[in-house]
Design goal:
It is a single chain. With 301 residues, the chain is α+β, with helices and mostly antiparallel strands. The protein has one domain: Fervidobacterium nodosum Rt17-B1 like (Heat Shock Protein 90), CATH 3.30.565.40. The protein contains 5 helices and 9 strands; from the N terminus they run αααββαββββαβββ. The strands form 2 sheets. Strands 1-2-3-4-5-6 form a 6-stranded mixed sheet, with helices on both faces. The protein has a 3-stranded antiparallel sheet with strand order 7-8-9. A hairpin with a 3-residue loop joins β3 and β4. The longest helix is centred in the middle third of the chain and has 39 residues, at 118-156. It is flat. The two termini are 37 Å apart.
């Protein structure tokens, strides 16, 4: 993998081709969303028929159904605000940073004219702890990148081009799920983009992990599903390359997801597994995502 990374880092971008980084990132993200949508519909039926991922959803048992009737109505309980901005706009150096923070607001609860139920109160209290932990993580990673960028400018002087882009987007905010995406981009001739996702279950107020959705062997099951989707995409489009079954990549080939693999829940209630640039594919593929089969009729074992 280091060989691939080094090759991409050695590519020099002509000055006349250099565009503002936020435009490039925005355009790339929009294009990837379109591609993912097409590929999702193209491959989803076959995926659901071949692999049974066991997803826990409300209608799987009487107990779960009863619990759903008591979902705290958090509604617009979560709000995202920008708490720090950092901008640099020079000939060779550019930074656009908007650091988000998640706020909780009990007054936004649906039905707030009455006192909160015990379930609502418990979820609201837990949500405050959850958002505090998420905000700490966001602040830590963004502070590190800003300080790294400042140090680079001091050491580089008038040499090279340096870019930093940090922004966020609420991907899902429905009756059950809240998912926030943090976009982190660093550029120095070539660039490196990574995403971090934070998903909160409004039923409990807790931050969700993959183990909340699937049975114990979820790492193996999800990994096999992703490999299948990778092969399908490469077969359908020769321009799509993943590091899978590649003799030259050896041990760097994708084997399986991490137990704490990054993911989010999309607006259709599906789990989307995410990889950063260079994790499982060459740099030109960018950050890649895989939508897991939509299996509402199965329950967690």
């Amino acid at each position: 993998m280091e060989k691939w990374k080094n090759e991409y880092k050695e590519i020099q971008v002509p000055e006349e081709m250099k565009e503002r980084i936020e435009e490039a990132v925005a355009s790339a993200r929009e294009q990837k969303k379109k591609v993912h949508t097409v590929k999702r519909w193209k491959h989803m039926s076959a995926a659901a028929a071949v692999l049974v991922l066991v997803l826990a959803l409300p209608n799987t048992s009487q107990t779960a159904a009863a619990a759903m009737q008591q979902i705290p109505l958090l509604g617009e309980f979560f709000k995202v605000v920008t708490v720090r901005e950092y901008h640099v706009d020079e000939e060779r150096n550019y930074a656009k940073v908007n650091v988000p923070e998640i706020l909780t607001d009990e007054t936004a609860l649906t039905g707030s004219e009455e006192a909160m139920t015990p379930n609502e109160e418990a979820a609201a209290i837990q949500a405050k702890d959850t958002t505090a932990a998420i905000n700490f993580d966001i602040q830590k990673v963004t502070d590190e990148l800003i300080e790294e960028f400042k140090t680079t400018l001091e050491e580089a002087g008038d040499e090279g081009y340096h870019d930093l882009y940090i922004d966020s987007e609420v991907l899902t905010d429905d009756e059950r799920w809240f998912s926030l995406e943090l976009v982190l981009y660093q550029g120095a001739g070539s660039g490196y983009e990574r995403h971090r996702h934070y998903t909160i279950d409004k039923l409990t107020g807790k931050r969700s992990v993959l183990a909340d959705f699937f049975e114990e062997n979820y790492v193996e099951m999800i990994s096999e599903e992703i490999k299948k989707q990778m092969r399908e995409q490469m077969t359908a489009d020769e321009g799509v390359i993943y590091w899978l079954d590649d003799e030259l990549m050896g041990d760097e080939n994708f084997d399986q997801i991490a137990e704490d693999q990054d993911f989010y829940v999309n607006k259709d209630g599906q789990v989307v597994v995410c990889f950063n640039e260079y994790d499982v594919a060459p740099g030109y593929m960018g950050c890649v995502e895989f939508v897991l089969p939509d299996l509402e009729n199965f329950k967690k074992i």
